[in-house]
Amino acid sequence: MPRRHKGPHLILRKARRDKDGRITHQAVWIIKDGDTQRSTGCGVDDRAGAEVELHNYLVGKHAEDPTGGETDAAKVLIADLIAFYLTSKADWIAAKDDGKKREFLSEIECLNGFWGNKTVSEVNEKTSREYQKGKKPNVVRKKLEILRSIINFGEFKGKVDKGGRRLDYAMPPKPKSRIHFYSRGEVARLVWSAYRKKHKAEGFGEYLASVHIARFILTAVYTGTRSERIEEASFVKEAGRPWLDLDSGIYYRKADGEQTPTNKRADPVRIPKPLLMHMRRWQKGMPSCADGKSRRPGTTYLTEYQGRPVGVRKGFQTLKATVFEENRAKEVNRHTFRHTCATWLMQAGVSVALVARYLSTTEKIIEEVYGHHHPDFQAEADHAFSRGKAGRGKEGRKVA
User: Fold this and answer.
1) Could you tell me if 224 and 359 are in contact, meaning their C-beta atoms sit under 8 angstroms apart?
2) Which domains does the chain have, with CATH numbers?
3) What is the pTM assigned to this prediction?
4) Per-residue pLDDT tens for 23-57?
């Protein structure tokens, strides 16, 4: 039986040498598609750049109809569905900052390397277990969730028909939820430290090097929004980006037409007034000082550095290591701000239903994870003991 075509993937062509051992051609990443090979122009140390080139190749190759009209799950290759997904989501991917884009495309390349030459019907417990060997549960679960999204998207768009069958992805169990949250004092220390860090940059005077991290922190605490949706948000409505409408005070946490998984909804949220006032100042900027040496320019993006949208993951890691002791720094991360928002709202007595809508999640999750923080938590039991009613049945009543 002939070997099945794996689908476009990256291989490393080793450096070429002449008979005297001198290098004539440097090592380079190659896109291999069956018998066709195409250079990415990226050297051995630029795997991320090669993945971007592979992405562009897939988009170009399958721009019209990647499956050729075939929809049978036993015949549709996952590589073709990956290509269709990348083509359809090209604007969304392009809107990501460079770090997020390369991380996502690296995950896609990993999926394509194993699953690309398999059909949709071959997604089952056996193949999933094979894929998971040697990988960390948290990492592989995230990749399998992406694979599931790709296949579901293909089915929704009519590119594959599973015939009513349910695929078994054999997902590793979810990691234990982190329930740490920041105190108000800790948030204040983080924001203050981020605002104080400065350096000089040409054209910007003495620039606030971490002001974008402070803005990220305040937005995350006030709205409970997930990190990537803060990092992608714009004050100007743009295709493929979440939008902060400062006139109406609404944070549209997903781009127009974007589809989100049920467990990662991103519904619009009203921006609290204190945060809204901050955001209007951030967008407008501050005028130059009298000496002309320092100023704070207005911004287009929520987390912007020297005119470009950026992520805050590495910067926040450095910041928290500076502000907190080692043990505390290990307990908390960027997602902890979402827990903090939910916890503070529950402590303030906000209803479970409203907190769930505010964070775009379910009442069940809010009740299970944060319910014990609410002032009314088990209030009836407390009331029974406080009033002395507990244990006081009818006098003389016999218990069998």
Assistant:
1) yes
2) 9-156 (no CATH), 184-373 (1.10.443.10)
3) 0.61
4) 777 888 888 877 778 888 888 888 878 887 887 77
